[in-house]
Design brief:
The chain has about 100 residues and is an alpha+beta fold. Helices cover about 55% and strands about 15% of the residues. The chain is built from five helices and three strands; from the N terminus they run ααβααββα. Strands 1-3-2 form a three-stranded antiparallel β-sheet. β2 and β3 form a beta hairpin. The two termini are about 20 Å apart. The relative contact order is 0.26.
Amino acid sequence: MALTDGQREKIYRLAQGERNYIRFFQYLSQLKQNMRQSAVTVVENHSNLNRKASLDLMRKIAEIGVAKVHPGGGSQLSYLAWEEDIDIREVGKSADQPLR
């Protein structure tokens, strides 16, 4: 499934809501290859958010329908599993420009 216009718009609005969010989306857009998962530590490192705020961002991304948040060891949420056929580089690029 490719990104819908609605998802692109939600990603853009999410990224514009917090300066550190855009840093994570910029990281996604600059990846050389598509990834299937993004760990919470990756979100932390590329957004400069603390763990709690990084998990909050991950939940917000999951609400858009492009990924699901999964637990790691100890039942703690620890990574985003991107939906099939979603190119996370396109997710990152969607944060740069509104549709309209």
